[in-house]
Request: fold
Amino acid sequence: MPCAGRASRSDTLAAECRKSGAAEEVGVVISISLVLLLLLLAVIFLRNGGLKVSHAIVCVLLGFLLASTRMAPTIHEGITATANVVSGLHP
Reply:
């Protein structure tokens, strides 16, 4: 944990550590939600015949390869920015 031991140094650092922890938790919730949404869409496409298993495997492999490139942080930031915009909408 990067904030371990820092919280006792000052109130400012403690507040910073609490904020970063909350941001990490929100990121995990968004990631899990996005994974579940994409999984649901994949199941729907597979059942309706719009997505073949071979196509799904290629997409999964592409995702794993993209995750190991220098583009991964940019993709992650884009998804996070989009999630923040969507969560800020009040219908």
Remarks:
- The chain is about 75% helix and 0% strand.
- The CA atoms of residues 6 and 25 lie 19 Å apart.
- The longest helix spans residues 11-48.
